[in-house]
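Subject: Interface between my chains keeps coming out wrong

I've been trying for a while to get a sensible model of this assembly. When I model each chain on its own everything looks fine, but I need the whole thing in one frame so I can look at the contacts. Pasting all components below, labels as-is. Any help appreciated, I'm running out of ideas.
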Amino acid sequence: AGRHFNSLTAEWEMKWDPIQKSPGVFDFSGGDRIVEFAESRGMRVKGHALVWHGATPKWVEALSAPELRIAFEDHIRTVAGHYRRRVYAWDVVNEAIDDSQPGLRSTVFSRGLGPDYVAEAFRLARKADPDAQLVYNDYGGEGLNRKSNDVYALVKDLKQRGLVDGVGLQMHISAASFPAVADIQANIQRLADLGLQVNISEMDVRVKDVAGDATAKLARQRQVYRDVVAACVAVPRCEAVTLWGFTDAHSWIDSTFGADDPLLFDEQYRTKPAFFGVEDAFLRR
Ligand code: 9MR
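Reply #2:
Try treating it as a single job with all components included. I did that and got this:
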């Protein structure tokens, strides 16, 4: 990781759950280790994620609305303040758009704070870390569809209010079925045209459902990595590609989708064909 990457993010360690497991008790040890590793290697760090229903401790769910507002403000202020000048960007709000109906997902935050909680989170993050690029991050809106239209509308509104600087497209995909690359590029372009930075934020490419033997699966995976990363490279404001892990020895995919090989290095940390697919995209081959 230290040799091949120039940017790092925390898969778990900077979320609400690990940082503030109990009310008012902040533990930055995991996130700090990641920042120290990155600094020792000259890598930049993106914080992930200040507000996400998926990694919120139980005690937050039990708060009254006024208590929730205080905890919300306190968490964002304290965490973004702690990492000020040590991260260049933050995923401020993660996965706020609903999967199956237009608009916001119903979460502890939308229910307790109302729909303006997204803007409020960005306002608080801006105050706590005025230098950081503030990012809205989500999945399922990589191509052109209802969800990406909703993400577009959300960030357009936030951008007009000076609150958001970037959008992260997670890009957890299967090489057997994923959005059309032309649609991914068109989506990146329309977000960029709003004046936003765009990044591919959590890419991995599953291959289990690809037809053929292991060699065929890995060749297909190489092609998909190349084509999707090339869609980012083609748009100047698409400024980063983050992979959700780097060795197949450690991936969230295995526990969620079953064993698969979604990343650039195999379990023995050897480069896979996918690695060279990404290289091709960066070298515009
Ligand atoms: O990969 C992450 C895994 O290690 C954590 O246990 C999990 C819960 O915090 O979150 C995973 O990362 C998620 C990311 O934060 C947001 N997008 C979806 C990712 C996969 O679930």
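Reply #3:
Confirming on my end. The mean pLDDT is 98.
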